[in-house]
Amino acid sequence: MNNAQQRNIGIALSYMTQLIHIITSIIYTPVMLRLLGQSEYGLYQLVISVTSYLNLLSFGFSSSYIRFYSRAKASGEKDAVARLNGMYFTVFFVISIVSALCGMEMLCNTEAIFGSGLSPQEYSKARILMILMVFNVTISFPSTVYSSIISAQEQFIFLKTVDLLQGLFSPLLTLPLLIMGYGSVGMVFIITILNVGRLAANIYYCLRKLHAKFLFRGFRWKTLQEMWIFTFFIFINQVVDQIIWNADKFLLGRMMGTTAVAVYGLGSNLNSLYTQLSTTISGVFVPRVNEIVSQSDDNWALTRLFTRIGRIQFMLLSLVLTGFVFFGRQFIIWWGGAEYEQSYDVALWLIASQIIPLIQNMGIEIQRAKNMHQMRSLVYLAMSIFKVVLSIQLIKLWGVVGAAIGTAIAVFAGEILFMNVYYHKRIGLNMISFWKSVSSFVPTLLVALAAGVLITRVLDIHRISQFCLGIVLYTLVYCGALYTLSMEEEEKAQIKALLNKLRRKG
After folding, report:
1. What are the phi and psi torsion angles at 256 (to 5°)?
2. Are the C-beta atoms of 47 and 133 separated by less than 8 Å?
3. What whole-number distance in Å separates Cα of residue 88 and Cα of residue 184?
4. Which of 196, 215, 225, 435 has a CB 3.0–4.6 Å from the CB of 86, allowing a cystine?
5. Could you give the dihedral angle defined by the CA atoms of residues 51, 138, 361 and 478, in that order, rounded to the nearest 10 degrees?
6. What is the Cα–Cα distance from 317 to 356, expressed in whole angstroms?
7. Please, what are the averages of pLDDT over each run of 10 residues along the chain (506 residues)?
8. Contact by Cβ (8 Å): 188, 52
9. Is the CA virtual torsion 492, 498, 500, 503 positive or negative?
10. pTM listed for this prediction
11. Handedness of CA 267, 270, 275, 276 (dihedral sign)
12. What are the residue ranges of helices labelled H in 286-373?
């Protein structure tokens, strides 16, 4: 199967995974929230946000594999790829050991980390959760080596199938343990089992199917130095991401307790689902971006790819965002419970601030392929420090929603204002052409927003039947306006070809 087919099927499997994830989340999350209770769910979110900082120990090396794999493969040297694999495995094995040691240190200082926001019983459970989560992070490092090899060879069908199975089995295996009373410990235990299974599957596929070789001698230390210089700024960016997307939970845990973390966590989880809708498409084009840069560095070809993927992402993401504006609050009240109503405001601030960065996330891979990601990382680092200071003040003023507003302001300043100028002036992407293309969606948005106002006034969306009818009507209006007012002829042709293909199969 060629690489284009792998990408197309990979995208289809990714969206199938997302659909399963969304359906299972809608069904499973309300049950989980009620079985755990708001306080324990907040504790679970808090522990995950703290232990996730151990992922920073990768120092960004995982993001650089495809770039150096392309170079090693193009060099024509017999053992270049095997030597690169051996180097990566050695680096991540050392990182795994360091991660375990750091995790043990965190366990010995639980009270200092969480402050006075937890009860004695919550501290006891937090330690158990931390042990399991530290183990998860520790085994994730060697697993990254194998998944990077699979991704570099564009074997997306296998990768996305594993994602799909993990997303399917996670709630199915967790629910019985929750019903039996094992709570958050049972949830993390299942996560651990599935991650061990993922590691075993990646190892098997790399060694038995791809016949990947690992050479542990004759390391090119110059290559390792280049990798470190390249990944250092990716590491800074990872630090920034951790601060922007996890610091709020940590601050709320210390300043307001686990209940506030639970409310914020539910809104943040919805934002995570929203984010994944975008990265599903862009993730499979990373090798293609590196190929263009290494062969021709054609900025116009990169702009076309950037714009084409951005348009596809916008079609879906704007439907979800505008639909959430009209139907999101009532959905959360039914889904999470009335005590989580504030999660709507959290999710709306986070999602609204994300839509532009998400339709432009292919630009991050273009920067890395060009080795021009350093400035972005430094600006984001300054932005993240500003975000923490701002969030502390806004939490004092507006509590949970204040934390989300602080994040949204930081994202707007860094990922929207700065990055669009940087893409145009330094990276070489034609952002004027990009925004002219995206502006064609304005008529669709105007029609959809008018329809949303009309539908929510005519229908009583507090009743489930009319709520569902409202969502269906809104989606139909949006899709109709999108097709007639905003889609390009090539995009319409692709839709017609897909419908004809489905009709022939039917």
Report:
1. -130, -15
2. yes
3. 34
4. 215
5. -70
6. 10
7. 60 70 78 84 82 71 68 71 81 85 83 72 85 87 82 76 83 88 89 90 86 77 71 72 79 83 88 79 69 79 90 92 95 89 94 92 84 78 86 92 92 87 90 94 96 94 94 96 91 79 63
8. no
9. negative
10. 0.73
11. positive
12. 286-295, 299-335, 342-359, 362-370
CA distance 233 to 243: 15
Q: How far, in Å, are 15, 321, 504 from residue 501 at the CA level? A: 18, 30, 5
Q: Hey, what are 32's tokens?
A: 């989980």
Domains of the chain by residue range: 1-219, 233-440
Q: Residue 56 and residue 49: Cα distance in Å, rounded?
A: 12
Long-range contacts of 468-476 (CB under 8 A, 24+ apart): 470/326, 470/327, 471/323, 471/327, 474/323, 474/326, 474/327, 474/448, 475/319, 475/323
Which residue, chain included where needed, has tokens 């024509």? Answer: 76
Alpha-carbon 80 to chain mean position: 32
Q: What is the pLDDT of residue 25?
A: 76
Q: What does the chain come to in residues? A: 506
Q: Looking at residue 437, what is its pLDDT?
A: 94
285 half-sphere exposure, CB direction, 13 A CA radius: 22
- Asked if residue 11 lies in contact with residue 280, where contact means CB atoms within 8 angstroms, the answer is yes
Residue pair 340/263 in contact by the 8 Å Cβ criterion: yes
DSSP assignment letter at 76: -
User: Residues 6 or more apart from 273 whose CB is under 8 A from it?
Assistant: 18, 21, 22, 25
Cα dist. 225→180, 221, 231, 358 in Å?
51, 6, 10, 31
Calpha distance 440→430 (Å, rounded): 16
Residue with tokens 């009583």: 460
Instruction: State both tokens at 432.
Output: 């004027």
User: Distance (Å, rounded) from C-alpha 408 to C-alpha 386?
Assistant: 12
CB neighbours of 199 closer than 8 A, spacing ≥ 6?
139, 142, 143, 146
Residue of 274, 69, 60, 55 whose CA lies nearest to 155: 69
Task: Give the separation between CA 102 and CA 62, rounded to whole angstroms.
Answer: 20
Tell me how far CA of residue 332 lies from CA of 263, 462, 464, in angstroms.
11, 12, 13
Which pair of tokens denotes residue 311? 């348009």
Helix (H, G, I), strand (E, B) or coil at 59: coil
Tell me phi and psi for residue 204, to 5 degrees. Answer: -60, -45
456 vs 304, 351, 452, CA distance in Å? Answer: 38, 21, 6
One-letter amino acid of 343: S
Torsion sign, CA atoms 119, 123, 128, 129: positive
- Rounded to 10 degrees, the C-alpha dihedral 313/318/319/323 comes to 150
Separation CA 283–CA 304 (nearest Å): 17
* DSSP code of residue 260: H
